Automatic annotation (TrEMBL):
<keyword id="KW-0249">Electron transport</keyword>
<keyword id="KW-0813">Transport</keyword>
<feature type="transmembrane region" description="Helical">
    <location>
        <begin position="173"/>
        <end position="193"/>
    </location>
</feature>
<dbReference type="GO" id="GO:0031526">
    <property type="term" value="C:brush border membrane"/>
</dbReference>
<keyword id="KW-1278">Translocase</keyword>
<dbReference type="GO" id="GO:0006879">
    <property type="term" value="P:intracellular iron ion homeostasis"/>
</dbReference>
<dbReference type="GO" id="GO:0010039">
    <property type="term" value="P:response to iron ion"/>
</dbReference>
<keyword id="KW-0560">Oxidoreductase</keyword>
<keyword id="KW-1003">Cell membrane</keyword>
<dbReference type="GO" id="GO:0060586">
    <property type="term" value="P:multicellular organismal-level iron ion homeostasis"/>
</dbReference>
<feature type="transmembrane region" description="Helical">
    <location>
        <begin position="213"/>
        <end position="234"/>
    </location>
</feature>
<keyword id="KW-0812">Transmembrane</keyword>
<dbReference type="GO" id="GO:0140571">
    <property type="term" value="F:transmembrane ascorbate ferrireductase activity"/>
</dbReference>
<protein>
    <recommendedName>
        <fullName>Plasma membrane ascorbate-dependent reductase CYBRD1</fullName>
        <ecNumber>7.2.1.3</ecNumber>
    </recommendedName>
</protein>
<keyword id="KW-0349">Heme</keyword>
<feature type="transmembrane region" description="Helical">
    <location>
        <begin position="67"/>
        <end position="87"/>
    </location>
</feature>
<dbReference type="InterPro" id="IPR006593">
    <property type="entry name" value="Cyt_b561/ferric_Rdtase_TM"/>
</dbReference>
Length: 258
Protein backbone atom coordinates (compact mmCIF):
# COMPACT_ATOMS: atom_id res chain seq x y z
CA UNK A 1 0.00 0.00 0.00
CA UNK A 2 2.36 2.71 -1.19
CA UNK A 3 1.36 6.31 -0.55
CA UNK A 4 2.99 9.30 -2.25
CA UNK A 5 4.94 10.02 0.94
CA UNK A 6 5.88 6.51 1.87
CA UNK A 7 4.49 3.12 2.56
CA UNK A 8 2.77 1.22 5.34
CA UNK A 9 -0.62 1.01 6.96
CA UNK A 10 -2.72 3.81 8.42
CA UNK A 11 -2.39 4.01 12.21
CA UNK A 12 -6.07 3.53 13.14
CA UNK A 13 -7.49 3.47 16.74
CA UNK A 14 -7.03 7.16 17.60
CA UNK A 15 -8.31 6.39 21.15
CA UNK A 16 -5.13 4.92 22.62
CA UNK A 17 -2.93 7.00 20.39
CA UNK A 18 -1.86 9.48 23.05
CA UNK A 19 -0.87 6.77 25.54
CA UNK A 20 0.94 4.85 22.84
CA UNK A 21 2.82 7.98 21.88
CA UNK A 22 3.83 8.61 25.50
CA UNK A 23 5.15 5.07 25.85
CA UNK A 24 6.97 5.17 22.53
CA UNK A 25 8.34 8.61 23.33
CA UNK A 26 9.74 7.45 26.67
CA UNK A 27 11.28 4.40 25.03
CA UNK A 28 12.77 6.57 22.30
CA UNK A 29 14.25 9.01 24.81
CA UNK A 30 15.73 6.18 26.85
CA UNK A 31 17.26 4.66 23.75
CA UNK A 32 18.66 8.00 22.60
CA UNK A 33 20.25 8.60 26.02
CA UNK A 34 21.92 5.20 26.06
CA UNK A 35 23.18 5.76 22.54
CA UNK A 36 24.72 9.14 23.30
CA UNK A 37 26.88 7.44 25.95
CA UNK A 38 27.66 4.66 23.47
CA UNK A 39 29.05 6.97 20.83
CA UNK A 40 31.54 8.51 23.29
CA UNK A 41 33.26 5.14 23.76
CA UNK A 42 35.49 5.43 20.65
CA UNK A 43 36.86 8.67 22.14
CA UNK A 44 37.61 6.87 25.41
CA UNK A 45 39.31 4.16 23.36
CA UNK A 46 41.61 6.47 21.40
CA UNK A 47 42.42 8.82 24.29
CA UNK A 48 42.67 6.39 27.18
CA UNK A 49 44.11 3.31 25.44
CA UNK A 50 45.57 4.73 22.21
CA UNK A 51 47.65 7.72 21.20
CA UNK A 52 44.83 10.32 20.96
CA UNK A 53 43.97 12.38 17.89
CA UNK A 54 45.88 14.65 15.51
CA UNK A 55 46.33 15.10 11.76
CA UNK A 56 50.00 14.20 11.28
CA UNK A 57 50.16 11.02 9.18
CA UNK A 58 50.80 8.91 12.29
CA UNK A 59 48.67 6.57 14.40
CA UNK A 60 46.89 9.57 15.88
CA UNK A 61 45.62 10.42 12.41
CA UNK A 62 44.46 6.83 11.95
CA UNK A 63 42.46 7.21 15.18
CA UNK A 64 40.16 9.71 13.49
CA UNK A 65 38.98 6.77 11.38
CA UNK A 66 37.13 4.80 14.10
CA UNK A 67 36.05 7.97 15.95
CA UNK A 68 34.44 9.67 12.94
CA UNK A 69 33.06 6.53 11.37
CA UNK A 70 31.36 5.34 14.57
CA UNK A 71 30.05 8.81 15.43
CA UNK A 72 28.94 9.68 11.91
CA UNK A 73 28.40 6.58 9.89
CA UNK A 74 26.93 4.43 12.64
CA UNK A 75 25.41 6.77 15.21
CA UNK A 76 24.22 9.76 13.16
CA UNK A 77 23.08 7.54 10.28
CA UNK A 78 21.11 5.41 12.77
CA UNK A 79 19.35 8.47 14.19
CA UNK A 80 18.72 9.79 10.65
CA UNK A 81 16.97 6.53 9.78
CA UNK A 82 14.53 6.66 12.70
CA UNK A 83 13.77 10.42 12.89
CA UNK A 84 10.45 9.95 11.09
CA UNK A 85 9.52 7.36 13.71
CA UNK A 86 9.85 9.48 16.85
CA UNK A 87 6.22 10.09 17.84
CA UNK A 88 6.89 13.63 19.11
CA UNK A 89 7.92 14.59 15.56
CA UNK A 90 4.63 13.49 14.02
CA UNK A 91 3.18 16.97 14.54
CA UNK A 92 6.05 18.51 12.55
CA UNK A 93 5.59 18.96 8.81
CA UNK A 94 6.79 16.20 6.51
CA UNK A 95 9.02 18.70 4.71
CA UNK A 96 10.80 19.65 7.95
CA UNK A 97 11.35 15.97 8.75
CA UNK A 98 12.74 15.39 5.28
CA UNK A 99 15.25 18.20 5.85
CA UNK A 100 16.28 16.68 9.18
CA UNK A 101 16.55 13.16 7.67
CA UNK A 102 18.52 14.40 4.65
CA UNK A 103 20.65 16.78 6.77
CA UNK A 104 21.68 14.12 9.29
CA UNK A 105 22.50 11.72 6.45
CA UNK A 106 24.61 14.43 4.80
CA UNK A 107 26.53 15.03 8.05
CA UNK A 108 27.09 11.26 8.33
CA UNK A 109 28.40 11.19 4.77
CA UNK A 110 30.85 14.04 5.41
CA UNK A 111 32.20 12.44 8.58
CA UNK A 112 32.57 9.10 6.77
CA UNK A 113 34.55 10.74 3.97
CA UNK A 114 36.87 12.55 6.40
CA UNK A 115 37.42 9.25 8.21
CA UNK A 116 38.34 7.58 4.91
CA UNK A 117 40.81 10.37 4.13
CA UNK A 118 42.40 9.83 7.56
CA UNK A 119 43.00 6.11 7.06
CA UNK A 120 44.20 6.45 3.44
CA UNK A 121 46.62 9.26 4.39
CA UNK A 122 47.90 7.18 7.29
CA UNK A 123 48.47 4.18 5.01
CA UNK A 124 50.21 6.30 2.38
CA UNK A 125 52.45 8.04 4.94
CA UNK A 126 53.53 4.63 6.26
CA UNK A 127 53.67 2.80 2.92
CA UNK A 128 50.97 0.39 4.06
CA UNK A 129 49.04 -1.04 1.06
CA UNK A 130 45.53 0.28 0.43
CA UNK A 131 42.37 -1.74 -0.08
CA UNK A 132 43.78 -5.19 0.68
CA UNK A 133 41.36 -6.27 3.43
CA UNK A 134 37.78 -7.55 3.33
CA UNK A 135 37.03 -4.73 5.79
CA UNK A 136 38.20 -2.14 3.28
CA UNK A 137 36.32 -3.75 0.37
CA UNK A 138 33.00 -3.96 2.17
CA UNK A 139 33.55 -0.57 3.81
CA UNK A 140 34.26 1.31 0.59
CA UNK A 141 31.33 -0.43 -1.13
CA UNK A 142 29.06 0.74 1.70
CA UNK A 143 30.34 4.32 1.33
CA UNK A 144 29.73 4.26 -2.43
CA UNK A 145 26.18 2.91 -2.09
CA UNK A 146 25.51 5.37 0.72
CA UNK A 147 26.49 8.33 -1.48
CA UNK A 148 24.26 6.96 -4.26
CA UNK A 149 21.39 6.64 -1.77
CA UNK A 150 21.96 10.20 -0.58
CA UNK A 151 22.04 11.61 -4.10
CA UNK A 152 18.92 9.70 -5.21
CA UNK A 153 17.14 10.62 -1.97
CA UNK A 154 17.66 14.32 -2.65
CA UNK A 155 16.78 14.01 -6.34
CA UNK A 156 13.61 11.98 -5.90
CA UNK A 157 12.13 12.83 -2.50
CA UNK A 158 13.27 16.39 -1.76
CA UNK A 159 13.52 18.23 -5.08
CA UNK A 160 10.08 18.93 -6.56
CA UNK A 161 10.64 17.26 -9.94
CA UNK A 162 9.88 13.57 -9.46
CA UNK A 163 6.22 12.67 -10.12
CA UNK A 164 4.26 11.08 -7.27
CA UNK A 165 4.03 7.58 -8.84
CA UNK A 166 7.82 7.50 -9.24
CA UNK A 167 8.26 8.52 -5.58
CA UNK A 168 5.85 5.80 -4.47
CA UNK A 169 7.57 3.19 -6.61
CA UNK A 170 11.07 4.07 -5.39
CA UNK A 171 10.25 4.39 -1.68
CA UNK A 172 10.35 0.63 -0.85
CA UNK A 173 13.71 0.42 -2.64
CA UNK A 174 14.97 3.49 -0.75
CA UNK A 175 14.00 1.89 2.57
CA UNK A 176 15.46 -1.52 1.67
CA UNK A 177 18.77 -0.16 0.39
CA UNK A 178 19.04 2.28 3.32
CA UNK A 179 18.58 -0.47 5.90
CA UNK A 180 20.90 -2.86 4.06
CA UNK A 181 23.70 -0.28 3.88
CA UNK A 182 23.20 0.54 7.56
CA UNK A 183 23.51 -3.14 8.56
CA UNK A 184 26.57 -3.48 6.33
CA UNK A 185 28.18 -0.49 8.02
CA UNK A 186 27.74 -2.13 11.43
CA UNK A 187 29.33 -5.33 10.11
CA UNK A 188 32.21 -3.30 8.64
CA UNK A 189 32.79 -1.56 11.97
CA UNK A 190 32.98 -4.95 13.73
CA UNK A 191 35.57 -6.19 11.22
CA UNK A 192 37.59 -2.97 11.62
CA UNK A 193 37.54 -3.20 15.40
CA UNK A 194 38.70 -6.82 15.30
CA UNK A 195 41.53 -6.02 12.85
CA UNK A 196 42.68 -3.07 14.90
CA UNK A 197 42.79 -5.07 18.14
CA UNK A 198 44.70 -7.93 16.51
CA UNK A 199 47.15 -5.49 14.84
CA UNK A 200 47.85 -3.27 17.80
CA UNK A 201 47.61 -5.41 20.94
CA UNK A 202 51.05 -6.96 21.12
CA UNK A 203 52.24 -7.17 24.66
CA UNK A 204 49.92 -8.34 26.18
CA UNK A 205 48.28 -9.76 23.05
CA UNK A 206 44.55 -9.68 22.21
CA UNK A 207 44.36 -13.34 23.25
CA UNK A 208 45.48 -12.45 26.78
CA UNK A 209 42.32 -10.28 27.20
CA UNK A 210 43.93 -7.04 28.44
CA UNK A 211 41.50 -4.34 29.63
CA UNK A 212 41.59 -2.58 26.23
CA UNK A 213 40.43 -5.79 24.53
CA UNK A 214 37.50 -6.22 26.91
CA UNK A 215 36.59 -2.53 26.64
CA UNK A 216 36.60 -2.51 22.85
CA UNK A 217 34.80 -5.87 22.62
CA UNK A 218 32.05 -4.20 24.68
CA UNK A 219 32.04 -1.26 22.26
CA UNK A 220 31.46 -3.77 19.42
CA UNK A 221 28.65 -5.38 21.39
CA UNK A 222 27.02 -1.96 21.85
CA UNK A 223 27.24 -1.32 18.10
CA UNK A 224 25.30 -4.53 17.49
CA UNK A 225 22.69 -3.57 20.10
CA UNK A 226 22.39 -0.08 18.59
CA UNK A 227 21.96 -1.54 15.10
CA UNK A 228 19.37 -4.03 16.30
CA UNK A 229 17.41 -1.25 18.04
CA UNK A 230 17.40 0.95 14.94
CA UNK A 231 16.32 -1.95 12.71
CA UNK A 232 13.57 -2.79 15.21
CA UNK A 233 12.21 0.75 15.23
CA UNK A 234 12.45 0.98 11.43
CA UNK A 235 10.50 -2.22 10.88
CA UNK A 236 7.53 -1.99 13.33
CA UNK A 237 4.38 -0.61 11.74
CA UNK A 238 3.21 1.11 14.95
CA UNK A 239 6.30 3.35 14.95
CA UNK A 240 5.52 4.50 11.42
CA UNK A 241 4.76 8.18 10.90
CA UNK A 242 1.01 8.42 10.14
CA UNK A 243 0.33 9.27 6.46
CA UNK A 244 -0.44 12.95 5.95
CA UNK A 245 -4.23 12.62 5.47
CA UNK A 246 -4.57 10.68 8.76
CA UNK A 247 -2.52 13.28 10.62
CA UNK A 248 -4.85 16.02 9.37
CA UNK A 249 -7.98 14.10 10.44
CA UNK A 250 -6.46 13.35 13.84
CA UNK A 251 -5.51 17.00 14.42
CA UNK A 252 -9.01 18.16 13.40
CA UNK A 253 -10.76 15.70 15.71
CA UNK A 254 -8.53 16.66 18.64
CA UNK A 255 -9.32 20.36 18.07
CA UNK A 256 -13.02 19.57 18.30
CA UNK A 257 -12.36 17.83 21.62
CA UNK A 258 -13.40 14.46 20.23
C1 LIG B 1 31.96 1.37 9.85
C2 LIG B 1 32.45 1.93 8.83
C3 LIG B 1 33.85 1.74 8.33
C4 LIG B 1 34.19 1.86 7.04
C5 LIG B 1 33.24 2.19 5.90
C6 LIG B 1 35.61 1.63 6.95
C7 LIG B 1 36.33 1.70 5.77
C8 LIG B 1 37.67 1.45 5.65
C9 LIG B 1 38.42 1.47 4.42
C10 LIG B 1 37.85 1.80 3.05
C11 LIG B 1 39.70 1.16 4.72
C12 LIG B 1 40.85 1.04 3.72
C13 LIG B 1 41.82 2.17 3.82
C14 LIG B 1 43.04 1.91 2.97
O1 LIG B 1 43.13 0.84 2.37
O2 LIG B 1 43.93 2.80 2.93
C15 LIG B 1 39.77 0.92 6.13
C16 LIG B 1 40.90 0.55 6.81
C17 LIG B 1 40.95 0.23 8.14
N1 LIG B 1 39.91 0.38 9.05
FE1 LIG B 1 38.03 0.86 8.61
N2 LIG B 1 36.10 1.38 8.19
C18 LIG B 1 35.07 1.43 9.07
C19 LIG B 1 35.15 1.26 10.44
C20 LIG B 1 36.27 0.93 11.13
C21 LIG B 1 36.37 0.80 12.56
C22 LIG B 1 35.24 1.05 13.57
C23 LIG B 1 37.63 0.45 12.84
C24 LIG B 1 38.17 0.22 14.22
C25 LIG B 1 39.31 0.64 14.59
C26 LIG B 1 38.35 0.34 11.59
C27 LIG B 1 39.68 -0.04 11.45
C28 LIG B 1 40.37 -0.05 10.27
C29 LIG B 1 41.75 -0.48 10.15
C30 LIG B 1 42.62 -1.04 11.26
C31 LIG B 1 42.12 -0.30 8.82
C32 LIG B 1 43.48 -0.60 8.18
C33 LIG B 1 43.56 -2.00 7.73
C34 LIG B 1 42.70 -2.26 6.52
O3 LIG B 1 42.91 -1.65 5.47
O4 LIG B 1 41.77 -3.09 6.65
N3 LIG B 1 37.49 0.65 10.57
N4 LIG B 1 38.52 1.11 6.68
C1 LIG C 1 22.21 7.93 2.46
C2 LIG C 1 21.20 8.63 2.87
C3 LIG C 1 19.86 8.01 3.25
C4 LIG C 1 19.57 6.86 3.91
C5 LIG C 1 20.56 5.82 4.45
C6 LIG C 1 18.13 6.79 4.03
C7 LIG C 1 17.45 5.75 4.64
C8 LIG C 1 16.09 5.73 4.84
C9 LIG C 1 15.37 4.68 5.53
C10 LIG C 1 16.01 3.45 6.15
C11 LIG C 1 14.07 5.01 5.54
C12 LIG C 1 12.92 4.25 6.20
C13 LIG C 1 12.54 4.97 7.47
C14 LIG C 1 11.17 4.62 7.98
O1 LIG C 1 10.55 3.68 7.46
O2 LIG C 1 10.71 5.29 8.91
C15 LIG C 1 13.93 6.24 4.83
C16 LIG C 1 12.74 6.89 4.61
C17 LIG C 1 12.61 8.04 3.88
N1 LIG C 1 13.63 8.79 3.33
FE1 LIG C 1 15.59 8.33 3.35
N2 LIG C 1 17.57 7.90 3.45
C18 LIG C 1 18.60 8.67 2.94
C19 LIG C 1 18.49 9.88 2.29
C20 LIG C 1 17.30 10.51 2.03
C21 LIG C 1 17.17 11.81 1.41
C22 LIG C 1 18.34 12.69 0.96
C23 LIG C 1 15.85 12.09 1.33
C24 LIG C 1 15.25 13.37 0.80
C25 LIG C 1 14.40 14.05 1.50
C26 LIG C 1 15.12 10.97 1.90
C27 LIG C 1 13.73 10.86 2.03
C28 LIG C 1 13.07 9.88 2.70
C29 LIG C 1 11.62 9.84 2.86
C30 LIG C 1 10.61 10.85 2.32
C31 LIG C 1 11.33 8.68 3.60
C32 LIG C 1 9.94 8.16 4.00
C33 LIG C 1 9.56 8.53 5.40
C34 LIG C 1 8.23 7.89 5.80
O3 LIG C 1 7.97 6.76 5.42
O4 LIG C 1 7.51 8.55 6.54
N3 LIG C 1 16.04 10.03 2.31
N4 LIG C 1 15.18 6.67 4.41
Amino acid sequence: SATPEGRGPAPGRAGGARRLRAILGAAGLGAAGRLRVGHLLPLVWVFHYREGLSWDGGPREFNWHPVLVITGFVFIQGIAIIVYRLPWTWKCSKLLMKFIHAGLNTIAMILAIVSMVAVFEYHNARNIPNMYSLHSWIGLTAVIFYSLQLFLGFAVFLLPFAPVPLRAALMPIHVYSGLTVFATVIATALMGITEKLIFSLKNPAYSASPPEATFVNCLGLLLVIFGALILWMASRSHWKRPPEENRRLLAASQKKGA
